[in-house]
Specification:
13% strand; eight-stranded mixed β-sheet; 2 domains; proline biosynthesis; Rossmann fold; ProC C-terminal domain-like fold; binds (2S)-3,4-dihydro-2H-pyrrole-2-carboxylic acid; 279 residues; EC 1.5.1.2; alpha/beta; binds 1,4-dihydronicotinamide adenine dinucleotide
Length: 279
C-alpha cells in the first residue's frame, strides 16, 4: 500500500496547510503518521475546534503562522471549502515563494482559478482525494498545472500518497468525473450501508441487528476486495449460487432499471456539479 511506503516523509522544506477540516485534517494526520517533521508543518485555519488545535499543537505543529514566520514553504496545501477560495487564495499568495507548489483539493476549483489568485508562474496542482484518507486508504486523482516542475509534482505526489493511492491525469477535464466517482464515492458506499440496514428492517430484522449486519457486510466486502487479486465481478459471482438467494436479489439490482442506471445518474450529477462549481 502506497500510504505505507518506507522511510519518513520528507517534504524538503516547510509545508503550510490552509484549511484543516475533515480533508485537510486527514492529510495532516497522515503526514504526521508518515513521519513528516511536525516542526515543518504550519496550519492556517481560523475556526479549528480547540481540542483539535491542542492535539496538533502538542504534536509540535505550528498553528496560525504570520507571514514573517514562514516564507516560501515547499508546499501549500489548500483545503478550504470551494466557497472560501477567495478568502484563502490571498493567504496562499502571501506565504508562497517562487518555488512553492500550491496543491488544492477544492472541488470544482480549476487550475485557472487557482493561478489567477497566485503569483504569475506559481506551480499549482489540482487534486481530488476522498475521506478514507483519514485511515490511510484514500485515493486521489490529480492534475498538474503547466508551470509545475517535475520535482514539485513529485512533492505533491508524496504529500497526497501519505494518505493512500494517487493517480495522475493529464486532462483537467477528467477531474470532474474523478470527483463523481472517488471524491464523492465514499458517501455512496455509506448510503449503501444505511439503505441495506433499512431493507433488513423491512424484511423483519430488529433495527440494531440490521445495522450491524449491513455495516459488517460492507466492511468485510471492502476488505475482501482490498486483499483479493480478483476483480469485483468474480467476487460477486463467488457469492452467487445458481438459482439461489443472491441471484434473486441481483435480478432486481441488475435489471434494466436497477443499480447501473441509478449509479450512472448519480455520478453524472456529481460530475455536473463539479463543472458548475468551476463556473
Ligand atoms: N470531505 C470530502 O469528502 C472531500 C472534500 N474535498 C474538498 O476539500 C475541501 C474541504 O472540505 P472539508 O474538509 O470537507 O471541509 P471542512 O469544512 O471540514 O474544512 C474546511 C476548513 O477550512 C477552514 N477555513 C475556512 N475558511 C478559511 C480560510 N480563509 N483560511 C483558512 N481556513 C479556512 C474551516 O475553518 C474548516 O476547518 C473542499 O474544498 C472540498 O471540496 C475533496 C475531496 C473529498
Ligand atoms: O461534496 C463535495 O463537494 C466534496 C467533494 C468530494 C467530496 N466532497
Amino acid at each position: 500500500m502506497n500510504a505505507h511506503c518506507s522511510g519518513p516523509l520528507d517534504a524538503g522544506g516547510p509545508v503550510l496547510l490552509i484549511g484543516a477540516g475533515k480533508m485537510g485534517g486527514a492529510l495532516l494526520d497522515g503526514w504526521l503518521a508518515r513521519g513528516l517533521d511536525p516542526a515543518s508543518v504550519f496550519v492556517v485555519d481560523p475556526a479549528l475546534p480547540e481540542f483539535t488545535a491542542e492535539r496538533w499543537r502538542r504534536a509540535g505543529v505550528r498553528l496560525g503562522p504570520q507571514p514573517g514566520d514562514l516564507s516560501g514553504p515547499a508546499a501549500i496545501l489548500l483545503a478550504v471549502k470551494p466557497q472560501a477560495v477567495e478568502g484563502a487564495l490571498p493567504a496562499a499568495a502571501t506565504f508562497a515563494g517562487p518555488d512553492t507548489v500550491v496543491v488544492s483539493v477544492l472541488a470544482g476549483t480549476t487550475l485557472a482559478t487557482l493561478s489567477a489568485g497566485l503569483a504569475d508562474g506559481q506551480a499549482v496542482v489540482r487534486a481530488m482525494p476522498n475521506t478514507p484518507a483519514a485511515v490511510g486508504r484514500g485515493v486521489t486523482g490529480c492534475v498538474a498545472g503547466g508551470q509545475t516542475r517535475p520535482e514539485q509534482r513529485d512533492l505533491a505526489d508524496r504529500l497526497l500518497r501519505a494518505v493512500g493511492d494517487v493517480v495522475w491525469v493529464e486532462d483537467e477535464g477528467l477531474i470532474d468525473a474523478v470527483t463523481g466517482v472517488s471524491g464523492s464515492g465514499p458517501a455512496y458506499v455509506f448510503l449503501l450501508v444505511e439503505t441495506l440496514a433499512r431493507a433488513g428492517v423491512a424484511a423483519g430484522l430488529p433495527a440494531e441487528l440490521a445495522q450491524t449486519l449491513a455495516r459488517k457486510t460492507v466492511e468485510g466486502a471492502g476488505e475482501l476486495l482490498a486483499r483479493s487479486s480478483e476483480p469485483p465481478e468474480i467476487l460477486r459471482r463467488n457469492v452467487t449460487s445458481p438459482n439461489g438467494t443472491t441471484a434473486a436479489a441481483l435480478e432486481v439490482l441488475m435489471a434494466e432499471d436497477g443499480l447501473a442506471p441509478l449509479m450512472e445518474r448519480a455520478v453524472a450529477a456529481a460530475t455536473r456539479r463539479s463543472r458548475e462549481l468551476a463556473g
